[in-house]
Amino acid sequence: MAGVSAGTGAMGSLIGKLAALLGDEYKLLTGVRKQIEFLERELSSMRTLLDKLAGMGERLDGVAKDWRGKVRDLSYDIEDCIDRFMDRLGDGDAKPNFMKRTARRLRTLWARHDIATQIKELKARVVEESERRNRYRLDESFYAPSTRVVEIDPRITALHGEVRGLVAMDSPTKHVTALLTDDKEMELKVVAIVGSGGLGKTTLAMEVYRRIAGDFHCRASVSVSRTLDLDKLLKDILSQIDEDAYRKCKSECWEIEQLIRKTKLILTGKRYFIVIDDVWNEQDWNLIKATFPDNNNGSRVIATTRITGVAKLCCSNSGGQPYHMPPLDDYDSRRLFFKRIFCSEDSCPADLEEVSARILKKCGGLPLAIITFASLLANKTHTKDEWERLQDSIGTGSSLENDGNLKGMKDILLLSYWDLPHHLKTCLLYLCIYPEDYKIKRKELKWKWIAEGFLAPQWGHMDQVAEDCFNELVNRNLIQPVFKYDGSVRSCRVHDMVFDLIISLSIEENFAAVLNGHVCNSFPRKIRRLSMQSGDKEYKGAAHAITETKLHVRSLTMFRPGKQIPHLVDFHVLRVLDLKSCDWLENKHVRNIGSSRQLRYLRIESRKITELPGEIGKLRHLETLDLRRCSALLRLPSTVVQLLKLVRLFVSFDTVLPAVEFGSMDALEEVDFWNTDDPMRFAEELRHLTKLRKLRHLGHHIVDPIGDFAMREKLLELLVSSVSELAKCNLKYLVTDGKVGQRLFRDLCCTYPYLHDLAIHPHIEMIPKGMTSLRNLVKLDILVEEFDKEGLHVLMDMRSLSHLRLEIRDGMKENLTIGNNGFKVLKVFLFRYRIGYPFKVEPADLLQLTFAPGAVPALQRLDLMLSPMEVTSDFFANLGFQHFSGLAHLRATLWCDGAAPGRVEALESSIEKAIDLYPSCEFQVDRFLEDGMFKDDKQWEEAVAERRKEFEEHRQKLEESREEEMRLATTN
């Protein structure tokens, strides 16, 4: 289990720290050792029960919840105390014989800093909770059948009820029905419907079932419990396909094996149709599908699930793809909402239109949410104030808590939450610290999860473990991925209804306190995580509570535009400090940053901070230091090289890195910087990092301050040599400039097997031949001065390349054709062609890029940025659209700055004609810098004529100057 979780607090990491204190490295005083041994023994026992309680969630009674909360709170307090003690000893990772030499110091520390008093008080609390556990017999009573409350499954209505007034179900019903009723496919076919809870999967499945079930000999519809009860599920199926067999199985008490055999025997000779609703995991599906024989009679199965991976498994044997249940669009959302409230789709009073739109936006196309809120409003007075009260409550957690009518929706969403393992519950709850509808950066979220201790190191490399957690939450449809145009996922959002749920759970568990502008009458006695999202007025009201509880705050995140921040003193247990978008921050606000010794993640965004205090070097646990938005910070303090646990270091373009001892930061895995105070020394220091094979992300653009040509060459060669050594080790992501790139890849032997992602900016002269050897490169982002056939062939020979961003600065030397002998796996192609000198280009000089038949067979996304003045109007007609077999997305951006309107319109027209070949392709045409376009073609022609005249005059002057120089040289 992870060190820290919402259910068990810091119990996991605490037990490990207590065990470390009892190890040989720490020779504790006799009295101290006995107290630590007692704490470890008692807390280890408590942890076993705490783990069980955390897994039972909704079935806990009040006594169990209260005990769990107190023990969880106790674990935080004990860990904070132990951390402070270990920190004051001066070395959190004790070395052999360290404590033997510091026994006297240990004794004085224990007494002088009141550690002994604190441990005594904490021990008393442990004894109290242990006695309370025994007094209430929590271990035994928790598992007693009488304590379990059995409630009606909230999915029953959708599974068995006759749904009337369906909206936007006709098209999905026809689609799924068509997948099921193909008479040519006689083998067993499974259609999986996947989507988040409340999206209408069950409703869709049952609508299809009601329409076509009569065409089958046997039919059944069942729902899977979150913890699979295979015996109950098989009996449910049997009761629907053969009542006699079902009565017999009840009277004879059949075992599961008998149930499977009999069900399979009954279905073998018949054409059957089964709906399996809400499959929770792959193991459950493997058990269930074993009951269904493939009798080649055209039998069909629908499986619904909230989890994408499960959906893919369900239909894998049929060779199909899951049907992703779409949310309702704006039009259908309005229809459903008003139909439920007013029994008509167009009867909304004018004064309620605006607030209705806001409520529907928060519902996000989720039918369950729309129906639930509509049903609630139908029974209230139809006034703007009443509706706005409901709208304001969504996103605060109160909408699900304060109204019994919304319990059904909360229960549906809770099914997904309780199915998560402990660490994923915690990772999901952490999203409550972000504002509603906020676009959350994937990497930032991962680094914070790691810093908070939610993930266990023994699970593997921490970044990959965090990546897996992010993907799993996406896979379970609990967070919504935000796609970039190249298809990558850099961010996510949380649906408002899920957001409401996690806010509600966070309040219940005292997981985080959020200042978001809503009325807050009280704050928890101990704030563990604090998110500040509103202005100064609310902060003033909360200032006392924050000051009183700052000794317990582990995470402080700023989102608000106000100009006040808690004084960063005595935040001793702070793990995460994120001062985002705080442009008003000055040096004085961060001068005490070194006092937060437990800090793991630090981000500062301010254009007024000019220096950081030297004591930042005391943050020996710091893993992430992100200063990319501190543009006025000209230099990092030299003490930054003391951050020996630093994994990620990012600074702005203007910030200078210290070169001396940079190579001693042997935990570094990711570095982005532009300049250093000693480029030669820095290039040498990079060599030290190659020995440790940890650095896997390097972004560098060293600004060379040296004027001597020979020294510049020496620096360049040294830098290329160091980067080359890194690339041979573990370097996966490299951002470099054209000078380094030109030399780094000049030889065909530069294989660099680990390199996965490469960006070269500023420009490189030509595509280096050595790039052909980058067999494992997946992504390439390159700005090249001139591009020709040879460069194209080099790129086409890169066999693993799936994402290419190619920008040409000075133009193509010739017409280019992309053939079918390369780019076999290229999925995304972003092509930028804008040379910027239209007055120098004659129509005959305009070049064409063409795709030949069979080219780029895997291409899914094509993104083109072109100047209408640098390509012909029939550029798209000749591009070769007809050869794209899998193109799904096309975006064309026209660079309009300095362009003639007629040329822009002609190019847009050619795009529309070309795209007609792909009616199913999503396409987008944008104008960039449209304000810089000429008013009309005549004005453009006059401007170009004038610029050409100026250019010609300038050229003539240069020639005359050269001739004069030659004449003088000849005369002399």
Assign the CATH superfamily of the domain at 156-324.
P-loop containing nucleotide triphosphate hydrolases
Mean pLDDT: 84
- Using only C-alpha atoms, the radius of gyration works out to 33 Å
Low-confidence stretches: 91-100, 143-150
What is the CATH-assigned architecture of the domain at 156-324?
A: 3-Layer(aba) Sandwich
- Major sheet: 17 strands, parallel
CATH topology of the domain at 156-324: Rossmann fold
Count every helix, treating DSSP H or I runs of 4 or more residues as helices.
31
Can you count the beta strands?
Answer: 29
| Class derived from helix and strand content | alpha/beta
Task: Give a description of the structure.
Among the domains are: 11-147; 156-324, P-loop containing nucleotide triphosphate hydrolases (Rossmann fold); 330-383, no CATH class; 414-546, Arc Repressor Mutant, subunit A (Orthogonal Bundle); 815-933. The model is unreliable at 91-100 and 143-150 (pLDDT under 50). 41% of the residues lie in helices and 15% in strands. The N and C termini lie far apart (87 Å). The protein has a 17-stranded parallel sheet. The protein is globular. Strand 28 (889-895), helix 30 (901-915) and strand 29 form a beta-alpha-beta unit. It is α/β, with parallel strands linked by helices and 972 residues long.
Helices and strands in order:
Elements: H1 11-21, H2 30-56, H3 62-89, H4 103-112, H5 115-135, H6 138-142, H7 156-160, H8 170-180, E1 189-194, H9 201-212, E2 218-223, H10 230-241, H11 243-252, H12 256-268, E3 272-279, H13 282-289, E4 300-305, H14 308-314, E5 323-324, H15 330-342, H16 353-363, H17 367-378, H18 384-393, H19 398-401, H20 407-418, H21 422-429, E6 440-441, H22 442-452, H23 462-475, E7 480-483, E8 489-493, H24 496-509, E9 513-515, E10 529-532, H25 536-549, E11 555-558, E12 576-579, E13 601-604, E14 624-627, E15 648-651, E16 656-657, E17 670-673, E18 675-676, H26 679-690, E19 697-700, H27 709-729, E20 733-736, H28 738-744, E21 757-764, E22 779-787, H29 789-796, E23 803-812, E24 816-818, E25 828-833, E26 849-851, E27 861-866, E28 889-895, H30 901-915, E29 922-928, H31 937-971
Parallel strand pairs: 1-4, 1-5, 2-3, 3-4, 9-10, 10-11, 11-12, 12-13, 13-14, 14-15, 15-17, 16-18, 17-19, 19-20, 20-21, 21-22, 22-23, 23-25, 24-26, 25-27, 27-28, 28-29
Antiparallel strand pairs: 6-8, 7-8
